[in-house]
Structures are given as structure tokens and as C-alpha cells.
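chain below, 316 aa
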Amino acid sequence: MLEPEPRDYGIDPEEFGSARVDAAALLDAELGDVDWSILPPGSVRSGITVPSGTLAGLSLGNPEDPAVVLVPGATGSKEDFSLMMPDLAGAGYFVLSYDLAGQYESAGAGPENLVPPRKHYDYGLFVDDFLAVLQTTATPAHVVGYSFAGIVAQLAYARRPELFRSLTLLSCPPEPGASFRGVSRIGRFSTWVNGRIGAALLIWGIRSGRVVNVPPGRRRFVSYRFRFTRRASVRDIYTLMQNAPDLRQTLAAASLPKFVAVGEHDLWPLRLHRLFAQAIQARIGVYRGGHSPCETSPHEFSRDLLALYAKADRPS
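prediction:
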């Protein structure tokens, strides 16, 4: 695949993030309050069969094109990437996202569907599901793991590196172990509360805007989504994030393109994200806003992904 022309994406590979004003930055500045219930024109809904059940998928583009798989985080959904999908598909990629097991329209997927059944959502469940989704596309694929899904993507890479063309970790917890400990407001409570209380605090923080402050349209969609998301899945994910694995050495040794993307006012301090990117030998892009550059800087983030992908896809 040819490298995108600068006039289309306006990105120097060494200037990832919101360091310049270009066409992508101007588009992001004009976003306003988005109606997140409206899907990208031409996108296709699907049900993806995985070990834990059926996951709700959303795709855009030609399935025969190189794939970009966008994985949302805890309490999120495929719609989190709606504003990015047209940019990526328009550049010649097949773009696929899906709701994690137990989340939003994948609420029916869970550990009770595994063979043999299990009681809790665990890393194995999410990784097995992700690998099953990945293998429905043309692999190796470009992968973006958002927040908790960044941990899942790292584990999946460690198991099946040949399925990855590049790895982008978006607002991923930057430290192993008790990953919430560095988060403002809830961090000081996170190490001594259980999964049930931690999940309740997390959901309260999101709904109230205390953890992530979002426009009214976004808050309405997030509140609607919580009607379907299983509390057990959030509870178990909270517990998993308190035991985040340390894969920094594995990622540092990986030769594929790696990118850490983060908002300048993320849940975790920017200093920790910079140290994490340095430890895994990845580029870092810092965007205006908080935990969700895919929502607040979608065109700039897409621009930078396309620059990263152009280099990865260039014939050697």
C-alpha cells in the first residue's frame, strides 16, 4: 500500500499528536456535541461467533482490504470509534470494531457460555474472544486496544504475534499490577475495595462526569448503554485491572510498529504514559482532551494511525 499523501493527512511521522494545526485538527475542533447513536454511513452490523457467545460487531470498508481492528474498553462499545471508521476505511482499510463480552450489545456473551463454563470474566475469555475476532479478518491486522482492551491486546500479541501488523495502545493503563492506583479521585480507594465496590465507583464516576467529563450527547449515549452492560462484567474487569500483567519486555522486543496514544488530561498522569512508551520502545502521541482521543480527536488520531500504517504496509 502506498503512503498517504501529505495533503490528505498532513502528518510528519515524527509529529504524532496535537502538535500542529492542520486539516485534521480543524475537523476535530468543529466536532461539537455528537449524536453517538448514528452509525457511520455504509457501516455494517454483524454478530461475531466467539468462545464466550456472540459479539456485536460494526465494520466499514472492503473485507478484502488490510484490516484495522478497534477494541473498546470497559463500559465502552464499538460506537466509540464511529468518528474514526470513515477516515480509516476511506484510506483503503477494512475497519472492524466490536463490543466486549458482557458490554452493551454483547451483553449475552459471558463465561457461562464457555466449554466448560466458568464463573467469571477473565483475561483468557477476553483474549480468546479477541483472537477469534481477529481471525475473521485478513491477518496480520493493525490493532488498536483502548484502555482495558490495551491489556487484552498485549496478552493476545504475546500469544499470537503473527496475527499483528501493528499495535496501538490507546489510553492503556501504563503500569502493571494495581493499574488504578495512579488514577486521580478513585486511585486512593482502588487498592482496598473489592470488584463489586470498585465497579460501582467506576460506573458512578462515568455517569456523574466525575471521572470523565463529556458533552450532553455523549453522556446520554453512555447512560443508555449502561442499561444493557452486565454489572458482573464491569466487576470482573475492575478486578482484572487490579492485576494487570507486565508485558513490557515482550513488547520492547517486538519488531512491529508500536504506538501509545493518550489525551493530555488522561486518567493516568502523562508522565507514566511517557515512561511506558519508552519502556516498550513505542512512539507516543499526545492529544487534546482526556481519556478518549478516539472521541475528542478522532481525525488527528486517524491521521497518525494512517501514517503509522503506511510505514508498516510499505513493501520491504
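The CA atoms of residues 54 and 182 lie 34 Å apart. Confidence is low (pLDDT under 50) at residues 1-14.
thats it, cya
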